[in-house]
ATPase dynein-related AAA domain-containing protein (Alexandrium monilatum), 205 residues
Amino acid sequence: TVFCYQDMLARDLLQRRATDEHGNTLWKNGPLLDAALGGGVAVLDGVHRLAGGVLYSAVGRLLQDREVDLADGRRLMPPERFAELLANGLSAEELERQGIYQVHPAFRVVATGEPPTQSGSQPGGRGSWLSQETQTLFHFHKVPALPRDEQVELCGAGSSGQGAETDVLKAAFEGLARFSSAIRQQAESDPSLTSMTLSLRQLLR
């Protein structure tokens, strides 16, 4: 899982710069790159926080063409082209020595993000993470917020209180859930209220 943040650069989604014990610069793979090489599922959590254009510039080629040039000089290519090189007599070890690797056929990416209207921008508009380019990268599914009763039940399940303490916590959860639900409805027409909404994660805290 990659937790996205506002100041994140496109390069940070794939690799990050680090130094070894001798002070030499090196590049460390991020979870997204590890998934691409190993055939895992990478989760990009909170892509709405990324600056405009970062998401597409980071994963556009990787998702559409299954290839990307990395900061450390290595190159990832689609399995079909990698197989062609193998068929021409090159071994996987020789290609890896040249810095050429294949994107695993099973590699997948799941991205989560708030609707642009909740992020203070309109779909496809300036500042929106949901641009025309990013719309070509994913299949989109809208996940509605949990009903208030289910939120309260889930929050209560994680409580360690007993007896009267549990009742107090449940009442507090119910009040916060009602507040969050009311604010979320108002925020649909007034984006300035978005910052006042409480996510399920915040309720659990």
